[in-house]
TrEMBL record:
It comes from Lasius niger (Black garden ant). InterPro entries: B30.2/SPRY, B30.2/SPRY_sf, ConA-like_dom_sf, E3_ligase_FN3/SPRY, SPRY_dom. Residues 1-148 form the B30.2/SPRY domain. Gene3D superfamilies: 2.60.120.920. Pfam families: SPRY. This is E3 ubiquitin-protein ligase trim9-like protein. Signal peptide: none annotated. It comes from the Eukaryota.
Length: 163
């Protein structure tokens, strides 16, 4: 499934399937991208605001990214600036663990984009994105977590248990 947005204002696209347990991984391929846009990828509650960037309200958790860097955003606050951006052809991976760690992580082209983005996630969450200014993405769902990313995540779980 693909989504695009031509307008300057962000628009949120929300999945029709929510998750309350399990480990879930999906990827989004950036099919069209202009260097002055900042798409956001993540999760949201069903009642997230649909007319602003994902993460601006307290119902969305996201990584917004441009061609050079990214930030994590929730409740309008953004933090953890990380170098490395996206371009046309990039793939953004999203790993949501609602079983063991209750965390959300992001990957760009199979590389971690920052550390764990969000912790203590409980409830029902829907995969979500927000787009603006000519961005088109394609969603790839029901994927197995790539082995090297799963190993990284299992290492994090192990460190949590030992702490």
């Amino acid at each position: 499934m693909s989504a695009s947005c031509e307008g300057y204002e962000h628009r949120v696209v929300l999945s029709s399937v929510g998750f309350s347990r399990g480990v879930h991984y999906w990827e989004l391929t950036i099919d069209r991208y202009h260097s002055d846009t900042d798409p956001a990828f993540g999760i949201a509650r069903a009642d997230v605001s649909r007319d602003q960037m994902l993460g601006k309200d307290d119902k969305g958790w996201s990584m917004y990214i441009d061609r050079q860097r990214s930030w994590f955003m929730h409740g309008g606050g953004h933090a953890h600036r990380t170098e490395g951006g996206v371009q046309q052809g990039s793939t953004v991976g999203v790993l949501l663990d609602l079983d063991t760690t209750h965390t959300l992580r992001f990957f760009v082209n199979d590389q971690p984009q920052g550390g764990v983005a969000f912790r203590d996630l409980y409830g029902v969450f829907y995969p979500a994105i927000s787009l603006n200014r000519g961005v088109t993405v394609t969603l790839h769902t029901a994927l197995d977590v790539p082995r090297h990313l799963l190993a990284l995540h299992e290492e994090y779980v192990s460190d949590m248990v030992q702490s």
